[in-house]
């Protein structure tokens, strides 16, 4: 698969998860930008060349859901994949209420993440 002109932004405060997702996406032909916090991602604005977000729900500081609300309030509508290690149905409900593409509980099969990114590509048309 050829490299995309746009990138997937991975926002997770776990360095091992960052590396794993970055390696998977790079090997699958996706451009990747990694951020260790929601605040770091927000500081990257403008968000040109970002087509999809993979966001951990539980981040130190601004949570993944807070980031989603922050971006929506400013008119940004990224297809978002929420990930979490917490087995909480309330998180899943909140994620889908926020309009996410997918909600994945860690550890998740790499194929599920890649399928969700492909769905985000279709949503972006």
Number of continuous helical runs: 5
The CATH homologous superfamily is termed: Response regulator
- The CATH topology corresponds to Rossmann fold
Q: If strands are numbered along the chain, what order do they take across the biggest sheet?
A: 2-1-3-4-5
Question: What is the first-to-last residue Cα distance?
Answer: 17 Å
Shape: globular
Helix-and-strand structural type: alpha/beta
Largest sheet: 5 strands, parallel
Radius of gyration: 13 Å
Query: What is the beta-strand fraction?
Result: 15-25%
N to C succession of SSEs: EHEHEHEHEH
Q: In total, how many beta strands?
A: 5
**Which stretches of 5+ consecutive residues score pLDDT under 50?**
none
Name of the CATH class:
Alpha Beta
Outline of this structure?
This protein has 125 residues and is of the alpha/beta class.
